[in-house]
Amino acid sequence: MPLRREREETSKETRKPGKENSYLLSYSSLPVAAPSSVASTLSVFSWRGWTPSSRVDDMDGSDQEQRAWSWRVEERSDNKALGLLYEPGNWGDVLKGTWAILLARALARQTTDTPFHYLDPFAGSATYPLTASAASRLEWLGSGPFVIEQARWLAKNELASTGLLVREAALSSAAEVTLEVFDTDPRRLESWKDTPGAQIASASGGEDLLKGGSTANLVLVDPYDLFDRWRELSPSIVDVARSSWVLLYLYNKSPRGAGYRRNYRDFRERLKSAAGEAILGRVPSDLFLPRAYHEVVLIGPSTLPEELSRDLLRATKNLACKMSTTGSFERLS
Ligand SMILES: C[S@@+](CC[C@H](N)C(=O)[O-])C[C@H]1O[C@@H](n2cnc3c(N)ncnc32)[C@H](O)[C@@H]1O
Fold first, then answer.
1. Which residues of the chain have pLDDT under 70?
2. CB under 6 Å to ligand 1: residues?
3. Could you tell me the distance, in angstroms and rounded to a whole number, from the CA of residue 20 to the centre of ligand 1?
4. Which fold would CATH assign to domain 91-326?
5. Which of 34, 206, 231, 249 could form an SS bridge with 121, CB 3.0 to 4.6 Å?
6. Tens of pLDDT along 52-82?
C-alpha cells in the first residue's frame, strides 16, 4: 500500500450535512488499493445518517438509549428485517472473524473427527448486506485473514457471518464441515437453511445448547451482551471448554467507569480458573477516541499449539497496531 501523508491516513469524525449530531468515521480519503469488487460497492451503498444515540461500534446495552440505527442498501426491502444492534463488519467482527478463521484452519487440520463440528448458539444471519462503512473499513485494512476469506461475499456486496467464514476456513483442511446454528430471531435462523452442512438446532435459547457440555471442535459464544451476562453463562461456558475450544466475543466497556472495570476484572478471574488454556485478543472499538474495546477470549481443554498461538498473536497485533497508530498523530491545520 503506498504511503501518503499522515493527515490522509487519520480517520475523522465528521458531521453529515443536515444530520445533527450524526457521528461517522470517514475514511473517504484513505489510501487504499482496493479490490475493484469492494470499491464498486461504495457507489451502491449510502448512509441515511445516524441519530445521536446510534453510534458506530457502540452496542452498549446499558446506556438506556434506543439504538435505532438504520442503513440503506440498494434493495430497500432488505432493510426491514435488519433491526440489528450493531453494524456487521465493525472492528469487533474483524477481530472475531480473524480468530475464528485461524482457529478453524488449524483445528480442522488437527482433528480426526469427521466432519469438523462448529457450534454457534447465537449465530445471527448467514450473511449481511455490506454497508459503505464496512466496505471502506475492509478496503482500508487491505489484507489479512478476514479480508481474504470474505472476498467471495464482498464480490456480491455481502458480508459472511462468522459461521460461514469458519466453514470456508475449515474446508481448506477438512473434507466435511457441520455448522450447528441457532438464533432466537426466526428470520436470521431461516437464512441458514440453504447453507451446505448447516444444521438448525432445536432450542428455546442459545443458552440451552451450552448446557451439558459439547462435542463440537469449536464453539462461538457471541450474544450481544456477554459483558452483562457472563455470570449467568459462565458455568456452561467453562463446562463446554473442558472438551471443546470456545471462542467468546466481549464488548469491553471498562473505560466507562469503575463498576464496568470491576465487572471486567471478575470476568477475567473467572476465565483464568477455567481448565486448560485461556488467551485473549483486544482492539479498540474505534480508531478515534475509543470508549470501549472489542475482545475475543479463547478457552479450551489443553494448551494451544504453538504455531496457532503465534498466528493469533501476529494477526491481532497487526490489526491493533494499524488501528492505534492511525489515531496517534494528527495534523489539525
Ligand atoms: C452478535 S449477533 C451474532 C453474530 C454471529 N455470531 C456472527 O459472528 O456472525 C448475536 C445474535 O444473538 C441472537 N440472540 C440474542 N439472544 C439470544 C438467545 N438467548 N439465544 C439465541 N440467540 C440469541 C440475536 O438475535 C443476534 O442475532
1. 1-85, 275
2. 96, 120-124, 161-162, 182-185, 188, 205-207, 220, 222-224
3. 31
4. Rossmann fold (3.40.50)
5. 206
6. 222 333 333 333 333 333 344 444 455 555 6
